[in-house]
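re: ur question from the group chat, yeah i did fold both. here u go
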Amino acid sequence: MKNNMKTKVMCAALSLLVLAACRKDEDVVIDDGDQSEVVTIDENTTHLNGPMRGTLLSGKTYFLTGDLIVPEGEEIIVEECVTIIAEGDGGPIGPEITVHGSFISKGTESCPNLFSVPVNMRTEANTFAGLWGGIQCSDKAKLVYLKWTRLEYLGGEGGPGTPRAGKIRYGLWTLSSDTEVIIEDCHFYGVKDDVYRPVGGKINLMRNTFEFCGETGGDGLNVKAGTVGNIAYNVFYGSATNAFKPSNEGDGTVQSNINVYNNTILNGGWRRPGLSRGANINYEVGARGAAFNNIIVNCKRGIRVLETADIPNVSVDNNLYYAHYQEMVDEFIPSDAVTSTQATLGSNNIYGGVEDNNPLFVNYDVSQFSFTDYNAGENQPRAMNQNDGANLRLSNGSPAIGAGVTSISPVTVNWKYAVGAYAPDVMQPSQDLGAYPTSGNGNKHN
């Protein structure tokens, strides 16, 4: 790895309990490569390593043999039907894509992109092995655009000169309120810690699917200070902790403002010991926003709003809860945040007792797992954490049909880089709950 140019940035995170996912502030040194040695990708390129720019061509397979660095002011565009195999150099630390400029993956529904590891390493034993480092951004990064892209087996320790040097990497990490991230119609499978941790930034996460995310901790989206945007029409199977956690923790000058709506969240929170966290949507530490039109099934806890959140500017309404066990019902309003959560609740949340308000998915048995299964940690049934032939669309008679609110608008974001062909698809809320409204305009997976 080149070490000729180094940029010093701050990593904002707060040291909490041993079980917390955050870490204390510290300086990290990020290798920006020698821009005089930037390689331009052409039709003969097969291996990705070091500072590069250019276009990965449709239909080709590329091998990530070391850290691929996108220098400041440069971009890499990935056309449709591209496969990137993270092979590494044989050492103990898997490679990553380090972004100081822009990284754009333009998969399509008919021909998505795949970022994975060699076929022989795509095993059950490696689900949380963190075999490669995903996409790690410095505070100079402008745009990360992921469309119809599947990313697998992410995490693992970061190498010297990278944003997460010596620490477990998140699937995607950004460090600036100016960085813009579009993730639409993507699929994440097997992430050791957080799928995406934005320390500031402008985000749009629409119609994605998450499976096996967080080994014994970590969130799907773990927002820090200065992050604004929307999270909607996503499906989350079996998060270790929270599916989505908006927070304003850190030193950002922009208040985190996140709307979380029309998501379907199943079996969340059970791999995280104790009741120290939420299990689906968790607002805390000065964050504002709205959580509405979500379907929450058999999660360890309900939507949770801590007293440290910007409570007057948090609203929680028109969400449907289903629980197969009383222990789940007891935590619909989390026991460690009763007063603060209740202060944000509207009058249209759908609560009940054990087995009340079955959302009537077309093909998914909400009663298939025992309470022992939920508490089995790494021995949970795999079907609890992935789509095992499920169809989460709504059958006729579902209480989720027509129960949504459409008068709440998505958070307004002033996009600078995500414009034109890369403009986000910011979907409006639906009159139905969950990721698959009967209009057919929601999640497109399965």
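okk and heres the other one u asked abt
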Amino acid sequence: MKPRTVVVIGGSGFVGRHLIAQLVAQGVRVRAPTRRAERARHLLLLPTVEVIEADVMAEDVLVRLLRGCDAVVNLVGVLHSPAARAGGPTYGAAFAAAHVTLPERIRAACHQAGVQRVLHMSALGAASNAPSEYLRSKAAGEAVFHNDPTLHTTYFRPSVIFGPEDRFLNLFAELARAVPMMALAGAEAKFQPIFVGDVARVMVQSLLEREAIGATYSLVGPHVYTLRELVRYAIHTAGYARPIVGLSPCLGYVQAWLLEHAPGGPLMSRDNLRSMQRDNVSSASLPFGLHASTLESIAPSYLSMHRPGARYDQLRKGARR
């Protein structure tokens, strides 16, 4: 049965904006909590979306948000965290808060508000013995719901997600404008990128299909690429020719440490590098008979905006010149 009202936690982010747009297209009412309403301005124009300024980690906030709703979607995730402390969990504090504590609060709020249906975003490769803190914390977040069979939960494990607002392909296209050479840690790590619109389609369909309850879906695109191949594709499509130099494990570790302490915030971390020790791929196909879009059919439409002179072309177009 199609839900009437859904709470999307993390709805102002990359995946959230696409998921909410598709929910609205289905006639679903959406509550989108955010700490700062200005971050969700792009959602305000959607007719059945209520943007609510709220801190979902605050006491009783989630219960109020979930009352009268049919389902809750948890999209919250962070890529960086201070390292784990000795004697504590095997992941850092930021990972613990976003990936474990928040799911625990969502679970408790579901019981108090009478909501049973949960969609939970995890990550491909999540496991308690994974090489990175990120993946171990994602596994712990899944376990919160696995240990509560009274909730009807569906789990999503995507590979790297691409799309117009991504901070993956776009990042490399931006870097190519500024640097003469791309020095790359983890160059041979494998990924199977999935289009953000396809992720949203699977999640929306999961709300409609009873078979999705209790299921875990690995979300991957049709093709496997090394990181080197993805970076080459991104910078070439953006109109740049840059040599790509794969770094040794030792130099890659040094690069990750430096980027972890970048002035504007981490661009990469040693934990990200540890995540790449396992290939981010799967043999699974999309559920419900859906077909994954290819990278090559989607990415040029937005990577071309990084081409030299593209911004001036847009300005001239806007000025009708």
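fwiw on the second one: DSSP finds twelve helices and 13 strands in the chain. The chain has a mean pLDDT of 93. idk if thats what u expected
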